[in-house]
Structures are given as C-alpha cells and as structure tokens.
Amino acid sequence: MALATLHEVLATAVKTNTAIPGFNIDNIEGTEAIMDAAEAEQCPVILTVGQGAIKAGQLRHLADLVKRIAQESTVPVVLHLDHGISYEQTIQCLRLGFTSVMYDGSHFPLEENIRESRSVVRSAHAVGVSVECELGAISGVEDGISHKNVNLVDVEEVRRFIGEVDCDALAIGIGNAHGMYQGTPHFDFDRLRACKNLGTPPLVLHGGSGTPDEMIRQAIQLGIRKVNVATELRMAFMAGLERTVGQRDFYEMYRTAKENVTALARHKIQLFQGKL
C-alpha cells in the first residue's frame, strides 16, 4: 500500500470518533514491532521521526525504511516529521518523501508562529503533504527538547490561528507533557472542549506516554484524533533488552524487545480505537 497522508487517516478518525496512534520510531526493530501491532489490529498508523532520531543521523535511513514498509503493509502508513524545528527542516522532509510534517512554532510569539506555519503549509500543500501545527508549547522533555511552561493553550489564540493557518491537524496544550509523568497528569478538558467548539482541524495530544487510559478515552471523546507515544515505547524496548541481557543471546534480546513494543502498541491502538 502506498504511503497515506495525515489528512487521509485523520478523516477516518473523525468519522469514527477515534484517534490514530502517532508512534515515534528510532530503529528497524522498533518500527517492525509497531507495524506488527498495526497489522494485527488492522489500524492506520503514523510513524513519526522525531528530533532525537534526526540528531542521531537517522532521518534518511528511517524515511527509506518507512517507505519500504508501507509498500508491504495492508494498513495505511503515514511518514511524519515530529516537532519540526524550522521551515528548512520541513522542506528537507518533503524532499525525502514524507507525507506529513509537523512544524512546531509554539514556543514563538503567536505572530511568528502564524507566519512560519503558513509558509510550511503553503509549501507542503503544494506537493500534497499534510501539516500539523502546535499552540501551547508542550512541557516536559523529549528528544532533547525541553519546555517548562504551564502547558495550557489560549483558546482565543486557537481561534485566531485556525482563522489564518490552513493546517490539517493542530496540537494543543491542555496540561499534557512529554516524557513520563511525575504523578497523575491533570488535563483541562473544559479547555479541550472549548477549542473543539471553535471548529478546529483534528486535534492532537502529545505526551501520550503513561497517561491513564480513562483520561485518554475522555480526550478522544472530546475531539482528540491523534495521540503521540514515544517515551513509553522506548522504555518497553529497553526493558526487553535488559530482561534478556544475561542470556548473552543477541537475537533473543531483540526478539524480546520487539515483543514488548508490539504488546504496548497493540494496547495503545485498542485504547485509541475504542476497543478497550
């Protein structure tokens, strides 16, 4: 199956009142494990290349890997850039065959975020690629990106942004954070509801690792259509390696790591698709 766009898979999520998983990928084994889960659940999947993988020199490698996997897949696969740091980086990903890019201007003043997001949208849409934007910089640390703000998006800024930027998805801050939470997170569901009532494009929840299942269910009921998971997948992979390292069997270590990731990804997919 050819690569799908973010716009295409989120349209399905809107119709079914579900969310599509955005799973960060870092290597071949983890990517294959995620795809095993997506195939088993027959669910579209967004394979996301983050800034950590890019800093590690994996951008081209992972792009090629996802394009090959998509050709063999029976479910829609989106090749997505996570938290794009500049217009130039999004253009690089367009040239590499990404079908979706995220431009994260949330840490800039609103005027600059709007201006740069419009530039990315204009270029990406010209070649049929979807764009995710962000308002309300997500707190926490992931892939070396750190924001320590109180992560609550301004609803009036959302109103203005969607009036000026024709993005395909919008990530918003409602108290969510990157990485694993220290204690139980507190989501502002009233704020999420207010944003959704503005007629936004499909909304995105970053920081899905470690979030209680019931909070995820409620967020999806209120309009979240894409949920990102990164840290929890990496922890599952590492736990598999650590559990078998004493056996000194290279292939057993990676088999166990992949099984861990597949099991976690299947749970997330079932949760996001309303099967749990």
List keywords for this structure.
3-stranded mixed sheet, globular, 11 strands, TIM Barrel, alpha/beta, single chain, 276 residues, 11 helices
Sequence-ordered SSE layout with sheet pairings:
Layout (H helix, E strand, L loop, with lengths): L5 H11 L3 E5 L3 H14 L3 E5 L1 H5 L3 H14 L4 E8 L2 H9 L4 E4 L6 H17 L3 E6 L3 E4 L2 E3 L7 H10 L4 E4 L4 E2 L10 H8 L6 E3 L7 H9 L2 E6 L1 H14 L5 H23 L4
Parallel strand pairs: 1-2, 1-11, 2-3, 3-4, 4-5, 5-8, 6-9, 8-10, 10-11
Antiparallel strand pairs: 6-7
Structure description:
The chain is of the alpha/beta class. The protein has one domain (6-272): Aldolase class I (TIM Barrel, Alpha-Beta Barrel). Helix content is 49%, strand content 18%. The chain has 11 helices and 11 strands. The strands form 2 sheets. An 8-stranded parallel beta barrel has the order 1-2-3-4-5-8-10-11, surrounded by 8 helices. Strands 7-6-9 form a 3-stranded mixed β-sheet, with no helix packed on it. Helix 5 packs parallel to helix 6 (110-126). The mean pLDDT is 93.
